[in-house]
Amino acid sequence: MRNSELIMMVLLLAVLSLCKTNSLACNEREKHALLRFKQSLTDPANRLSSWSLTEGCCGWAGVRCDNVSGRVFELHLGNPEDSGTSTLVGKLSPALLELEHLKFLNLSLNDFRGTPIPSFLGSMSSLTYLNLWGASFSGLVPHQLGNLSSIRQLYLGGNSGLYVDNFSWISLLSSLESLDLGWIDLHRDIHWLDYVSQLSSLSELYLPHCQLNNMISSLGYVNFTHSLTVLSLPSNNFIHNMPNWLFNLSSLLVLDLSDNSLVGQIPSTISNLHNLNYLNLSVNMLIGRIPESLGQLKHLEILSIFSNFLCGPIIPCQLGNLSFLSYLDLHGNKLNGPIPSQLGNLSSLSYLYLYNNELNGTLPRNLGLLSNLVALRIGNNSIEGTISEVNFAKLSKLKSLGIYLTSVIFNVSHNWIPPFQLQRIFLMGCKLGPKFPAWLQTQRFLQTLTLHDVGIVGTVPKWFWMWASNIQTIYLGYNQISGNLSQVLINSTNFDADSNRLVGQLPHLSPNVVLFSIANNSLSGQVSSFLCQKLNERSKLRILDLSNNALSGELSHCLMRWQSLTHLNLGSNNLSGEIPESIGSLFSLKAFHLHNNSFSGGIPLSLNNCTFLGLIDFAENKLTGNIPSWIGESTHLMVIRLRSNEFFGDIPQQICRLSSLIILDLANNRLAGSIPRCLNNISAMATIPSAIDDKFSTLKFSIYLGFQRSSLGYREDLILVVKGRKSTYTNILPLVRIVDLSCNNLSGAIPIEISSLFGLQSLNLSRNHLMGRIPENIGGMKYLESLDLSNNHLSGEIPQSITNLTFLSYLDLSYNNLSGRIPSSTQLQSFNALDFIGNPELCGAPLLKNCTENEGPQGDENVEGSERSWFYISAATGFIVGFWGVCGALLCKREWRRAYFKFLNNIKDRVYVVTALKWSWVCYHFRRYHMISMFGMSKGLQPGRKGGKR
In the prediction, which pLDDT does 675 show? Predict the structure, then answer.
């Protein structure tokens, strides 16, 4: 009985102790301080609704009080949902200073509207924990925070508007154990490491995205050698070798130096970090081999060194000893040789990424024994051989499989039942066919299926369409898959079956479909039947590509049902009729292709409603009328391709307002008038093409495949006539700059303003009625690769500046009235004579007609005369300066004058002595020779002979 009473008493005391916090008497001064703090904030989610005068502050949301004194010592006001719905908005009130016993303050992920961190926080000396992470502060981090002598955990990161000018105050926080200043600009103080290294208690240091550019300590050492366990410095600007002090951090568990520009090799001394379990050196410029000493890091669980320049054999055998390794990512290097069989010993390995290297050989069979493997990607290597059931024997946990751009051949039995249930399959450029893989139907949880260019030949099996209805993304392009789609319902969010042998009418689409691309097949039937199909709800379709089929009929007003469309490609079919006005209801349209059909009529006025339109391709139709002037209001337009139609009238001046235009192709129409002089206002053509400034990216549509950093998507392509031939542009299309106005009735002169289009790569004005001279400054278009001005009435000489076009590889100036000498340059003389033919007054190489003395560009004579004048002027100036430079010094300096004449006297004496001696020597030898001659004659000898008469 007593025991039970005792137990009841203990339980009662426990309950009372739990309830004591709420029953504590709140300090009135602190209560009113918290209410003033609340007044400075906006609370849209009513998170602070319990903060009222009627209740004690120790029971308020986020407030913690001391169980004995009732004083507030913790405020937990961080945004719990990391969303705008529960964010506190406003500014920090100095009323917090009245919370004298506050040790814990968390205001993370709220919105303080870019206000500075208040300096009064540095006076809250009791704080041991301060978290302002991602709370939208900006400005200078106050030096007063260095007064927080008791602080142990300081988190100011995630506020990209903050910066530090002098970091010395951080060294005063002697108790600091964890520091996060991510996304704060620290580059102003080059001694940041010296200050941080004085924190002998520091255990965790997080400084990502801080614009740091130096990780070398001026002291040559750091003080946190034995305390630091986490060092995270990714996404900075370190451009040097890995410093030696790193490898003295014997307690380090996590080292992240990814996304910098570190150079040199990975030092073998990395084995000193024997406690390391996370190592990330990805996205740097490291070279050399992976050191064998990495195999000594027995506790390593995650190793990521992708996107460097590492070479040599993939992995030393010693890495096979890392029994705890679960994540290995070496993709995007230059590793060569076979995949080592030792990887099969990594029994804990879950993720293996080896793609985008130079690996060869076959896939080791013992990789199939990695029973914990979840993801495997080995694409874009030179791996070959056969993959069979043995390679997947124990991979029961495998969820992602990526094998692409290799010579691997899948050879599994028709009735094979894999041990895994995949979620993502990415097979591309390898050999999976010719039969459709039957084992796919055993995969019940598949989300992404990519079988791109894998050699599948034959009809889609009957089970496929029902089985595939729940798969989110399907890519089957570039095979030889056949089958009739007339009765098929596509339910996948993304479906791409380009370049196959599919026939029949277009399939039915579920409203859930976002991307549907079935170009380059043999589908037929009326396009209106597809556009007018019944939908139970509003369609989500954004990408529709039906190009290069045999579809017929007219576009109906049912187009307005597909208002989510951003990309519409109906090119290269048998469509006809007029473009309907209903096209203007597609307000989100960005790219519109109708090329190579038989559309007639004009461009509908309603198209002006498509304000996001960036690409128009109506080439090779029967469209007529004027090019509408409102086209200049479509400020997003980057591509206008209207070639091979029947447009007439002038080129509208408003087209010059399209500052983003990179391709203007109006060739082969009946346009008249002059070329607009304002083309130099098209700034995208007047600047150098850059992959960084890619406005064309707004036309891209990417789909995440579920693999690490991998995606497929829909990219625009265009057929352009450049350098006299048709080519399809896809990947480099954003970098192309073209103006093609050929085969029209344009007249007048070529405007000199066109030479201001410095970024232009191809200019074709051929087959018009242009007159006048070629612009003198055409040589300023330094990126020009193709220039065609043939079949016009151009006259005068070819400008000398054309020799500056060093990238020029295609030139046609034939059949004009050009005259004079062809300017001399290696570039121009390398072209064919046919490129200059039809200009009777033109002479010089590569033409066979030689130039006479009176022929040739006047500019050359002026240049020669100018050079001759400058030669005489330079010679006269040099003589005057040289003469008076010597004589002037002798006239002004008596000592120099005496020394000079003394020097001349000495020279004169020496010359006299040498001359006298030489003269004496000559006279002596002459007399001697004369005496010998006289003596020889007296003996019957002739000079120069050794024998006498016979």
Answer: 96
